[in-house]
């Protein structure tokens, strides 16, 4: 009997939205989760073709003597220049896409989650069946991040938020929205969504 491919569900949310907490609940429910941002970092240090492409574009200094990614150097070279950001995204996103497809091939669950902060911005949402956006009021998000990341200033948090699409832009593009505000309980929303996704996967 041929095993059908799982339903591919993307989950995103801006910094401080509570996306990681929602993912932990899905994980407890037995849902396999592909953490795209973590895998991107791993691939940049371990994928030979990707490493070579990064060196070709940004120089030998992109990696330290032991072969690990020189994040400080790369950040200083890439982030101030939008053209260079586009170049590195053009190298990393296809590698992540290929890695995700390979990962999906090994899964037998009814549906899987692909977690990524820049799901819409990278265009990778187009390869998925359903999208979840975890949203929260801006003030709540800033407070959460300041409590969690003591090293970040409020100005730095605003700079990160400014680089991400707003909930007003993401919500209409999403199939489901989890509202992670102080007056909304997260677990019942995830449980309800889990039921809906299981139903969609078996339809």
From TrEMBL:
InterPro entries: Depp_CoAkinase, P-loop_NTPase. Keywords: ATP-binding, Coenzyme A biosynthesis, Cytoplasm, Kinase, Nucleotide-binding, Transferase. It catalyses: 3'-dephospho-CoA + ATP = ADP + CoA + H(+). PROSITE patterns: DPCK. GO terms for molecular function: dephospho-CoA kinase activity. Its main location: cytoplasm. CDD domains: DPCK (cd02022). The keyword Heme does not apply. Its EC number is 2.7.1.24. Pathway: Cofactor biosynthesis; coenzyme A biosynthesis; CoA from (R)-pantothenate: step 5/5. It is found in: Cytoplasm. Pfam families: CoaE. The keyword Chaperone does not apply. ATP binds at residues 16-21. Belongs to the CoaE family. This is Dephospho-CoA kinase.
